[in-house]
Amino acid sequence: MATAAPAADCRRRAVLSTTLSRTSAAFLFLSVVVVGAVASARWITSTTTRRRPSPARSHPPLHPALPHPIPTPSPSAAASNNNSCPSYFRFIHEDLRPWRAAGGITRAMLDRAGLTATFRLVVLGGRAYVQRLRPAFQTRDLFTIWGVLQLLRRYPGRVPDFELMFDCVDWPVVRTHLYRGEFAKIMPPLFRYCGDDSTLDIVFPDWSFWGWPEINIKPWDALLQDLKDGNNRVRWLDREPYAYWKGNPSVSVTRQELVKCNVSSTQDWNARIYNQDWFKEGKAGFKDSDLSNQCAHRFPFSSLTDSIKYAVDWGNSHKKLAQRIGKQASNFIQEELSMDHVYDYMLHLLTEYAKLLKFKPTKPPEAVDICSESLACQAEGLEKKFLLESMVKSASDTGPCDLPPPFGAHELTMLKQRKENSIKQIEMWEQGASKS
Ligand SMILES: *[C@@H]1O[C@H](CO)[C@@H](O)[C@H](O)[C@H]1NC(C)=O
Ligand SMILES: *[C@@H]1O[C@H](CO)[C@@H](O)[C@H](O)[C@H]1NC(C)=O
Predict the structure, then answer these.
(1) Residue 51 domain-assigned?
(2) 156 close to 57: Cβ distance less than 8 angstroms
(3) Which residue of 20, 120, 268, 392 has the fewest C-beta atoms within 10 A of its own C-beta?
(4) What pLDDT does residue 92 have?
(5) Secretion signal: which residues (predicted)?
């Protein structure tokens, strides 16, 4: 299973191989020499023609009926019914809490976030400006910025002015313990695709919601449908009773450990582990990475050997319960992680973030104006296909869902406690099973 919850386990999607990064470093270097000579990436350098419709000769019109800017829906359209966002939205408050406690975000803090950031993003009056600071892996930066542009199309007039720093690398870097006491005044607000308990990075939906062309992961709306179809194609009980995982093992020690749990001629821990072979599959068009094909196994998840064996045995002897767990996870993905919610998450996060800024966002001289048309026109192949597929076609005529309130101190403690207790409980069961 490889989904990309805005606030959930980002590592599932973060398939970045050592071998590939070596290649891509070379590739990036090349592209930096070739493209970087004119100071910026392809998609940023040639955006100056943004207002003009694309020349129709070489590119078909993206969306002929595309007014710019898209009309703002009347605020009254937002229903007054209970339209609460899913509860994971409450982590927006958690992610921003340190800066609220520090009295807001200063320019000094933002500048510090620039130390590792891939790009600076400024939104002023509904237009986006990007200053590219470092090369990103593959097309992550392009697809992330694309996502923000689609947010502006979906909610015209509602995205506040802001200035932020975004880091496209997988792992969080803003260590909480470094920013205590007087150091809080330089605490960097840095956006990225994931966070954890010992860091302060602000979590933002990852690029693959708009597509991941390098490994043929479609935009999320299409992928959700494929997953649904895949789930319907093979009855749960008819699936192979194994845990299934596919990814690139060289990314982390945990993943290398996981490969050791694979079935062999001498052992079977009920796990079927597959290497994501970038080069072989690249040639085959990554047909085999298609997530909906992975529904042929009952338990698409990862954990370590004993846990896997225990969990699969448990699942196979508690079929009804296991199926219910799977069903609830699918429902969560289909309903609470819909693209509508992804955009609402972005809007609420950016709105709350903007409220904390203690300086007036300004467009740095190096930043260039970016718009959907120019970005998509310059893309080619799968990249272009995914951009067009994930393009927001019209403004939303209802408001975003209502942001739920922050956790009370006690609530969050309870939540963490419950999670720890569940893990402890399962570890005890696992120990019991391995003794018997
Ligand atoms: C609104 O709905 C959500 C879930 O849909 C629920 O958790 C929440 O308690 C509801 N709030 C009110 C005030 O009814
Ligand atoms: C795991 O075992 C299966 C079945 O033998 C094999 O096809 C697969 O390549 C193995 N995975 C890895 C990562 O070696």
Answers:
(1) yes
(2) no
(3) 268
(4) 98
(5) none
Q: Count of domains in the chain? A: 1
Ligand nearest to the CA of 269: 2
Percentage of the residues of the chain whose pLDDT score is greater than 70: 75
Residue 82 beta carbon below 6 angstroms from any ligand 1 atom: yes
Residues 206-240 have pLDDT tens digits of: 999 999 998 889 999 999 998 888 888 888 778 88
Pocket of ligand 2 (CB under 6 A): 259, 262-263, 273-275
Sign of CA dihedral 134, 136, 137, 139: negative
Four-point Cα dihedral 310, 315, 317, 319, nearest 10: 180
Closest residue to atom 9 of ligand 2, CA basis: 274
CB 58 near ligand 1, within 6 Å: no
Ligand nearest to the CA of residue 85, numbered in listed order:
1
- Between CA 322 and CA 426 the distance in angstroms is 14
Of all protein residues, the one whose alpha carbon is nearest to atom 7 of ligand 1 is 84
Ligand 2 pocket: which of 240, 248, 273 to mutate (most atoms within 8 A of CB)? 273
pLDDT band of 436, cuts 50, 70, 90 = low
Mutate to test the pocket of ligand 1, among 82, 87, 90 (most ligand atoms within 8 A of CB): 82
156 vs 152: CA distance, rounded Å: 5
What DSSP assignment string belongs to 277-339? -HHHHHHTTTGGG-GGGGGGEEE-----HHHHHHHHHHHHHSHHHHHHHHHHHHHIIIIITSH
- Which ligand number lies closest to the CA of residue 336? 1
Q: Whose CA is nearest to atom 6 of ligand 2?
A: 274
The DSSP call for residue 208 is G
Q: Has residue 408 been placed in a domain? A: yes
Predicted local distance difference test score (pLDDT) of residue 287: 55
**Is there a domain that residue 310 lies in?**
no
Range of the domain at 286: 46-298+341-414
Q: Which range among 49-53, 241-245, 279-283, 345-349 shows the weakest confidence by mean pLDDT?
A: 49-53
Q: Is there a domain that residue 76 lies in?
A: yes
Provide the pLDDT confidence category of residue 280 given band limits of 50, 70 and 90. Answer: low
